[in-house]
Write a structure and sequence with these properties.
Strand order of the largest sheet of chain A: 17-29-28-27-18-25-26
Largest interface: A-B, 37 and 30 residues
Shape of chain A: elongated
Number of strands of chain B: 0
Oligomer: heterodimer
Distance between the termini of chain A: 61 Å
Structural class of chain B: mainly alpha
Largest sheet of chain B: none
Number of helices of chain B: 2
Strand content of chain A: 15-25%
Helix content of chain B: 40-55%
Distance between the termini of chain B: 66 Å
Largest sheet of chain A: 7 strands, mixed
Order of helices and strands of chain B: HH
Chain lengths: 828, 56
């Protein structure tokens, strides 16, 4: 048997993982010295860096999917051990109320659920997930879409979705269920409709062009009856293009007309319809020229541009949606009658007076007061307050904040619409409704363009009739076709699509394409502080050593104590320790808001505030932080006294100052509005170089401040990340949310910075200005073309060949000009 | 040139067939995932993992 052979081979390779340069076969990270976690993959023992990766590799091999390692084109994500809190919340997916949201009961008794897959690095990962899911008991059918990274699973009603997700997480990936009815289907149907319309226009258009080519080279040798026959064929082929493919334009024009606006689609529809009807008339009457070729080319070009724009936008919303997705929120209501003393309940089912248990890492389900327990609570996303707050009996808790350290029992005081969070959502909706009305540049221009074209066409008709010209109608048609604002209507969409794609490749997602036009006119940028200008999480900024121990050693000790805590400070230490080997601590006791202590290698170590250290060691610690920057001070001590002083800061993003300076250089004013305290805000404003700042602002005050700026004529771009920023994001003319921020902020933003890099703000402004320049360039070109072409058309000098060639050249010119946006920006 | 009265209607039949095929492809989801099939054909069951004991 093959497995026996492999086992005899294994010992020879056993020493491989301990080599200094060994890298984890699964995730590619260095294997820490002394780690020996081999997994036999296809007959060879491969080193693993941690238990998580080992478990994942064993799972893959055990499922007979080891060939995954041969097919993958990039290393897999490191498999972290799942925090207990997350594992428990996964169980919420099996709660009937939650399960109903994303599984569909099928007629044959099976259930169908849809998952979005995350952390996927290459197609082999998707293959692995697909195969793995298909092997699970009770799973009947698995379909993974490689482009959208979504999985559709048909499974027996008895299968727990949480166990499928847990399996995927054990492989090192992430999965979130979603409701396909609500989110995906809408855009899917729209995409298919657009694709069908474009395809029909392309196929029929080719036929029309083929016949039209015969006319281009006609020197009078096409017989009259052949001519009418060919025209009739073209009429037949063009009709679906106008009334099926072009339906979107006709509908939009009609809607605009009823709403009292002359929009771009109206000029498109007029051009298409008049050219089509005129050509049809000429075909029937068998005289004059026909313009079917112009009609189909026009519709096809426009549809192609719309399709590209739609795809870019769909990709953007999809990404935003993924980021905003969170585990479902279920509250643990204390009920002595229930099993285990608590029952799961949806937040909507809570009533004032209910007692709720909130475990560390969980979200507070409603507003209330602490009934029992001491913990720290992070309200940063709600209020902008950067540091977690200590909460004990009687302290208020805000729904939507996150419990950090210890379990808390809360008495619910306000639920549903009365909570602070609901108040913010309401303010957001109001602000969205009152959003400054902006008519798009292209639409405004289209308004006068349509008017002018109609004027010239009528004049041509009047002059033609007055002069008793025989071909006056042909001339009117030529005017319409040659001015048919092909270049004009392509100008804006093509440039916007290029700008959207260029920004996407730089980590800036454009959710609403119209925002690009507005961003070019922005003259005032307003920043939020916590999480936007700063990282939103403390980082180790400075270490002062008091004893003989080395810095790395102190860091490892601190990280060991904090290893299982979810407190932001703990995360800072874990991050700072990097690849160092961390000892394990036992008997760890956490005193919320003060410190943590535990035993490492037989010694008790203390980590916490100077007061905490003084209380436990009986020694007055030295005045801290004299050498380092101002921030949170955390001390490490053993029983004899302090050995190190760490200074942690909510660090200003390194690029923030440069971005603010660059924005100023471009003539923009910069303001900082934050919910944080005066002192912290002042320090950050000074570090970044923002003179105009206001602290302690709630969402309404921020919105008010932005309204005042707008009242003074400013076109405001707002950059923020928190729930508390959502209303002001919606109220600004252009809004940018940080990708790491709250889902609510994403939903009200025009653009999202995926990589959390503030330079994206600058990129957005730059690209917006560049695309405005190019759109204007295109419009000038269209104007120039019309100034030359129109008189010729009015005088009847334009034959169909020249009209068609002119239109193609102008369209290509406009597209080329827009594509320049992509190239130039990549060079710069 | 009377032949065009035959040839062009024939071409229309072809156009009809092409359109039908295209619309069928859109409806049946052929355009929904443009990346997957390229990879799936390379990573499939016919590549038997050695764990099965049939690798040769």
């Amino acid at each position: 048997m093959l497995s026996t052979t492999a086992e005899t081979v294994a010992p020879m390779l056993m020493d491989m993982p301990t080599r200094a340069d060994a890298r984890c076969f699964h995730c590619g990270e260095p294997v820490p010295a002394g780690t020996d976690l081999p997994v036999e993959i296809e007959g060879v023992n491969q080193p693993m860096c941690c238990l998580g990766c080992q478990a994942a590799a064993k799972l893959i091999v055990g499922a007979g999917l080891a060939e995954f390692y041969r097919h993958r084109t990039s290393v897999s994500p490191r498999v972290e051990e799942m925090p207990a809190a997350v594992r428990e919340r996964l169980a919420a997916f099996d709660h009937p109320a939650v399960r109903r949201q994303f599984t569909r009961q099928r007629a044959d008794g099976a259930a169908e659920c849809s998952l979005m897959l995350e952390k996927v690095a290459c197609p082999a990962c998707l293959w692995l997930i697909e195969r793995y899911l298909a092997q699970q008991p009770g799973v009947m059918e698995v379909g993974v879409n490689y482009s959208t990274r979504r999985a559709r699973i048909v499974h027996g009603a008895e299968v727990e979705v949480s166990s499928l997700i847990r399996g995927i997480e054990q492989l090192g990936y992430d999965a979130q269920p979603y409701d396909p009815q609500r989110q995906q289907l809408g855009s899917d149907r729209e995409r298919r409709t657009l694709l069908r319309r474009l395809g029909v226009a392309l196929v029929l258009g080719m036929q029309v062009m083929m016949v039209a080519t015969a006319f281009y080279f006609d020197q009078g040798y096409i017989a009259a009856d052949h001519r009418q026959f060919l025209n009739a064929i073209n009429l037949l082929l063009t009709t679906p293009v106008v009334f099926y493919s072009g339906m979107g334009f006709l509908q939009s024009a009609w809607r605009g007309l009823r709403g009292g606006t002359l929009n771009m689609d109206l000029s498109v529809s007029l051009g298409v319809l008049l050219a089509y009807l005129g050509s049809a008339w000429n075909t029937w009457a068998d005289r004059g020229t026909t313009y079917f070729d112009a009609v189909v080319m026009f519709v096809t070009f426009l549809l192609a541009a719309r399709y590209l724009e739609f795809m870019a936008r769909a990709r953007a919303t999809e990404t935003v949606e993924r980021m905003g997705r969170r585990l479902p929120l279920l509250a643990r209501r204390i009920n002595p009658a229930a099993e285990g003393g608590a029952e799961m309940a949806a937040p909507a089912e809570l009533k004032p007076g209910d007692r709720v248990l909130i475990r560390p890492g969980e979200e507070v389900p409603a507003d209330g007061v602490v009934a029992e327990g001491v913990s720290t609570v992070n309200e940063a996303l709600l209020t902008g307050e950067s540091a977690p707050l200590r909460k004990q009996g009687g302290d208020p808790l805000l729904g939507g904040s996150i419990n950090v350290d210890n379990p808390l029992q809360m008495t619910v005081t306000r639920v549903g619409e009365k909570t602070l969070l609901a108040g913010i959502v309401e303010a957001l909706e109001r602000a969205l409704g009152e959003r400054p009305r902006l008519t798009a540049l292209a639409d405004r221009i289209a308004g006068w363009f349509v008017g002018a074209v109609l004027g010239v066409a009528s004049l041509t008709a009047i002059a033609g009739i007055a002069a008793h010209t025989e071909h006056w109608f042909a001339n009117v048609l030529a005017v319409l076709v040659i001015t048919c604002p092909c270049a004009l209507s392509l100008a804006a969409p093509a440039a916007l699509t290029c700008a959207i794609n260029a920004l996407m490749s730089r980590g800036v997602l454009v959710v609403r394409s119209a925002a690009i036009e507005t961003a070019a006119r922005v003259n005032h940028v307003v920043f939020d502080k916590t999480g936007t200008l700063t990282r939103g999480a403390p980082r180790l900024a400075h270490t002062e050593l008091l004893g003989s121990r080395r810095e790395a050693e102190c860091l490892a000790l601190a990280a060991a104590l904090e290893w299982h805590s979810e407190h932001p400070i703990a995360l800072a230490f874990r991050q700072a320790v990097g690849g160092l080997r961390v000892p394990s601590a036992t008997g760890v006791i956490n005193e919320p808001g003060a410190g943590i202590h535990g035993e490492i290698d037989g010694r008790r170590w203390f980590l916490g505030s100077p007061q905490f250290i003084a209380a436990h060691t009986g020694q007055q610690p030295p005045a801290a932080g004299s050498a380092g920057p101002v921030g949170t001070t955390v001390m490490l001590a053993d029983q004899e006294g302090p050995v190190a002083v760490f200074t942690l800061l909510d660090e200003v993003r390194p690029e923030a100052a440069a971005v603010v300076r660059a924005l100023r250089d471009r003539g923009l004013r910069v303001t900082l509005l934050t919910g944080d305290q005066q002192l912290v805000s002042a320090a950050v404003a000074e570090a970044i170089g923002i003179g105009d700042w206001r602290a302690g602002m709630n969402p309404q005050a921020k919105l008010q401040a932005v309204r005042e700026l707008q009242g003074g004529g400013a076109v405001v771009m707002m950059v923020g990340d928190g729930v508390n920023d959502a209303p002001v994001l919606a109220g600004a003319q252009v809004s940018i949310a940080m990708g790491s921020g709250a889902a609510l902020a994403h939903s009200s933003a025009d653009m999202v910075l995926l990589r959390g890099d503030l330079r994206g703000v600058l990129e957005a402004v730059e690209h917006a200005r560049k695309s405005r320049r190019i759109i204007r360039g295109n419009l000038w070109w269209a104007l120039f073309y019309n100034v030359i072409g129109l008189p010729a058309a009015v005088l009847g000098l334009v034959n169909p060949l020249i009209a068609a060639a002119g239109m193609s050249v102008s369209s290509l010119f406009v597209l080329g000009n827009a594509l320049r946006l992509r190239r130039v920006s990549e060079a710069g | 040139m009377e032949i065009i009265y035959l040839l062009i209607p024939i071409s229309l039949v072809f156009v009809g067939v092409i359109l039908w095929a295209f619309l069928w492809a859109v409806r049946s989801g052929q355009f929904d995932d443009l990346e997957g099939p390229a990879h799936q054909i390379l990573m499939d069951d016919d590549d038997i993992p050695p764990a099965d004991g049939r690798g040769d």
